Amino acid sequence: MSYQTAAQIYSDSRPKYPKEFFTKVMTELRADYRNIYVDLGCGTGELLIPLSSSFDESIGVDPEIEMLNQVNLKVINHNSRIKTYHGIAEDYFASIPKDFKIDLVTAGRSFHWMDHEEIIKQLKNHLKPEGLFISVGENDGGIWNRKADWAQMMKNLIFCGFHLKKDFKPTNGIKIDWIRTRDKLKTIGEIQEVEFKAELIWSSDQIINLYLSSAGLFEWLGNEIDDFKLKSKEKLLSMNQQDKFIFDFTIGMTIVKKYKASAV
Q: Is the pTM of this model over 0.85?
């Protein structure tokens, strides 16, 4: 399998954002702020593509070219105003003019990979007054901390059945002091915290692909991926022959609306 396949798995397996999420974003944004939208760590476009239809120009930023290729494949047959930037968020901001102003910046499940102090400094400069920065994350502890029986089984299989207990460490990004980061975000503008919950019914294939898309497991398994898929499916179906598993999904939004005047 190639990493292109990993990007496709990521695109297909990640839980989709609910309609209410996108409604909330556009409700919070000023009606005349529909010019420039930037998605930092855009991945395969789960935020970028739906939101881009409301803006004159949208830019997806990601360090993985395979992820950006998935974005381009999805919009190839549409009159899309999406552009992509291959690189990290910090380099993207360094590449644009100092007077370049942005209406909306999002970071969907990606802000924890970034240099928060540098990104906050750039947001202060590039966001329009009353423009929005929205960081999105999973508020349910992520895939490795789920309490459901199927999740415990998968974790045990990964760490013990495939002998990754000593070597494999889920890559969850840079260690962040979130209290300090929120205090820094308050220097940009007013903060609002919003949470969305959903109970999904997932198949064994969806669960398996979600794990393969998470925390570098795809790369760690290497030639054992097919064996992992086979054993995972056998164990999951032994737990539920109907192939239906409850997947509680909680997503949180941190919305920062930039102050009208200079940051305080």
A: yes
